[in-house]
Amino acid sequence: MDEGVDRISSKELSEIIGFSASQIRQDFNNFGEFGQQGYGYNVVDLHREISNIIGLNKKYHIALIGVGNFGTAVAKYSFKEMGFHIDALFDNNPEKVGQVLNGVEITDTNFLETYLSKHDIDIVAITTPSSVAQDLADRLVICGVKAIWNFAPVDLTVPDDVVVENVSLLDSLMTVSYLLNELKDATV
Amino acid sequence: MDEGVDRISSKELSEIIGFSASQIRQDFNNFGEFGQQGYGYNVVDLHREISNIIGLNKKYHIALIGVGNFGTAVAKYSFKEMGFHIDALFDNNPEKVGQVLNGVEITDTNFLETYLSKHDIDIVAITTPSSVAQDLADRLVICGVKAIWNFAPVDLTVPDDVVVENVSLLDSLMTVSYLLNELKDATV
DNA sequence: TAGATTGTTAATCGATTAACAATC
DNA sequence: TAGATTGTTAATCGATTAACAATC
């Protein structure tokens, strides 16, 4: 009678996350058969399978360029438990270079290429002003970086085999304003 | 012969933004008929209509709670041109209270209710640690705040008539890792 | 008027849901 | 075995695309 702890049915899941049981079963099945008829899904197995799918079983090495307010905030964020490690920090401000943040020393951005040629970096975060973001992206692409996590409010142009994920505060804020207006319209 | 400056067709738009011309026409039409047969869309009219739809023609007054790295970064971000004004900053750290950031003085969070009762605030940004976010959300709801821009990595529980927009760095980072894995799978 | 392009309807496509046979 | 719940197919729904009449 040790139910609900190590197994879960698509129906139970649907009640928790709001997708239909049917859709959950179909979606899971796209990635393989990890359920068991008459039993449901083993939560440990399920967790492992999903982690595999989204790649959370691996460790990711991150470098961050631009240690301003945003860069500092990101650098201090605790991603480590999820396997994301910030290995290197870069800034072109001589006053910041050499400082240590969260146990990582800030390096001059001039040494970006040198560093990347010597270390395996999976993702590079750009938290610089927009004006230099594309320039940095170009340099990263030349270095063979395949994933850019871009906080600068510009659309970076990169080859097809490079992934760019934008974090846009303005987009998010515009979403708020849209939702707020919708809300007001609905109540009028 | 002054084309391409003050008018644009759904076909031209589709080439720029990548949605089909058909879809653009149908979507625009959902919000009203602001094109002209045989001519296209007047770009000034179109801009105004879309701004109206997403509510960008208005000014928004924002208060921000939690002037840490993230809060500081957000406070310094230039949203003003888009009509978003950060009017107030709150923090419970006595050392920060009284300091001025971007022309706005930091107020003790204890005065949150007092401030909100005296000023019209449209959106409140929560850039505090997760531990106090729900508590603050509850207080904001009581004060009648209808839009919360939440940077704390927690799912806030609020009534149906309150909008919450979450900015989740971890979600964004997990998206990067998923895309990166997809990319690798595609090239193998 | 002729040409262009919208607004809008019909056709297609894909995604979601429902149903049920397979099977643990 | 009987009950439960998946994997998977069929039915439904909605969204996208294509087509074209309306009209500027």
What descriptive keywords fit this protein?
7 helices, alpha/beta, 188 residues, 7-stranded mixed sheet, DNA-binding, homodimer, 41% helix, two-stranded antiparallel ribbon
Biggest sheet character of chain A: 7 strands, mixed
Question: What percentage of residues of chain A falls in helices of 4 or more residues?
Answer: 40-55%
**Helix-strand makeup class of chain A:** alpha/beta
List the secondary-structure elements of chain A in sequence, H or E: EHHEHEHEEEHEHEEH
Account of the 3D structure:
2 copies of one chain form a homodimer. Chain A contains 7 helices and 9 strands; from the N terminus they run E-H-H-E-H-E-H-E-E-E-H-E-H-E-E-H. The first copy, chain A, has 188 residues and is an alpha/beta fold. Chain A has a 7-stranded mixed β-sheet with strand order 5-6-4-3-7-8-9. In chain A, strands 1-2 form a two-stranded antiparallel sheet. In chain A, helix 1 packs across helix 2 (21-30). Chains A and B meet through helix 4 and helix 7 of A and helix 4 and helix 7 of B.
Please sum up the structure shown.
The structure is a homodimer of 188-residue chains. By secondary structure, the first copy, chain A, is an alpha/beta fold. Chain A is built from seven helices and nine strands.
Protein topology:
2 copies of one chain form a homodimer.
Chain A: E1 7-8, H1 10-17, H2 21-30, E2 41-42, H3 43-54, E3 60-65, H4 69-76, E4 84-91, E5 100-101, E6 104-108, H5 112-118, E7 123-126, H6 130-142, E8 147-150, E9 163-166, H7 169-187
Parallel strand pairs in A: 3-4, 3-7, 4-6, 7-8, 8-9
Antiparallel strand pairs in A: 1-2, 5-6
The first copy, chain A, binds a DNA duplex (24 and 24 nucleotides) through residues 9-11, 20-23, 25-26, 28-29, 33, 35-41.
